[in-house]
Amino acid sequence: MRREPRTLARAIGAGGLSLLLAGCVSAGPDGGLGVVDAVARNELGRGVVKVSTDAEAAVAAQGVWAALKRPLTADAAVGVALASNRALQAAYNELGVSEAAFLQASLPPNPKIGLSRLGGGLELELERSLLVSLYALATLPVRREIAGDQLRAAQMRAADATLKLATDVRRQYWRAVAANQQAATLQQAKVTTDAAAELARKLGESGGMNKLDQAREYALAAELDSQLARARLAQRLERERLTRLLGLWGPEIDFRLPSALPPLPKSVRSATDVEARALARRVDLQAARLDLESLGKSLGLTQATRFTTDLELAGNSKYDRQKTVTEDGGIAKEKLNRRGLAIEFEIPLFDFGQARTIDAEQRYMRAANLLAAKAVNVRSEAREAAMACRGTWDIARHYEATVLPLRKQIQDEALLQYSGMLVDVSSLIADVRARILAQAQAIDARRDFWIAEAELRAALAGGGAGASSGSASASPAGAEQAAAH
């Protein structure tokens, strides 16, 4: 009869073990990166990779070297950054930390086992206990849902970090290529001004040009030398900033860039429904929604359990053995097995959970207000980016279709009149200066359009909050215009 009933402690232990095994979850093979990869493929046309082993690092390095064998395009530069930028890899590691927190929250609580032994003389006492948190078991489904929302929010934030890096790379890529084109344009102009200065010197020696006109030609050549020096410095600095974003070092920094910006597209995409598209696609907005859902469930759990923070069930088994000496000198053994249950909970005598409830409510309301503010900002950012993209395209087209042809015509006519001795050299020099300035401004306008186009992508999908397209005017055009005024 003693073998048929199971002890309560064994029953609790078996039930806890089965629940533990049933609740076990394991990490996914992609480290939580599947959602990020899907977003990147949809928005960037390429997947992402998390470099965790030497083999994965070798594969990523091979892809980078293959891309660097040719002059980098904007899309290729984004691909290089996704594989080489260590800060992005750190964001993926942070996502792995969030996945580990989800796995931890999805597991039932570990049971606690207590063993004690007391002995002395002819007595022996053994006590065994198995302690299980009923509170943790009862709230496990809700806590798992909350952790799942937090993991999905972390995935959206990792996707936003990916898109932000892509936007930063595109923005800096266009600045670096524009700096190349500015330097090349000024170099071509310098060849012309150097030839004109040499001609002025020879004419001065023969008496065909006075000292004043000679000085004007020399001044134009000297000014262009300083502008070219600034342009070459900007070229090196912009390239170095791009190198930093790409995560390259050593021999990898010798990558090649195009010498000029690509031509403007014949038209820009329609700016209709940009608000609706941004609200549906922005990954940072999705992360904020998931954070709000998580806090809402946390608030509900706090309100449901406000009067207690823990409830523990303990199964106890106590074994007593006593020995006594009989009258005939023998030893008699007496054994006693006792089993029982114990429940431990907190009595809300002073703390009724009001502080925890207020804290949870305020956290929820803060997240709700931040989400509403973000939704307003997302709408405005989408409209602003659409306006900037259209406006910079119109400005760049105006320079290329109207301003530059007129400046060329003016310089050609001035050169004809100067050759016919109808105007003096000062008028010709002024027209040359104006054309050089117009060419630099046209390059800046084209650069600003491509930057605005990249920022429109970010405003619709995520990864924005960078410098605006109009803020990058440390170029020869900006310096020349400031000097003119």
UniProtKB/TrEMBL annotation:
Biased composition (Low complexity): 468-485
Entry's Gene Ontology molecular function annotations: efflux transmembrane transporter activity
Record Gene3D superfamilies: Outer membrane efflux proteins (OEP) (1.20.1600.10)
InterPro entries xrefs: MdtP/NodT-like
Keywords for the protein's UniProt record, in alphabetical order: Signal
PROSITE patterns attached to this UniProt entry: PROKAR_LIPOPROTEIN (PS51257)
Protein name: Copper tolerance protein
Organism: Alsobacter metallidurans
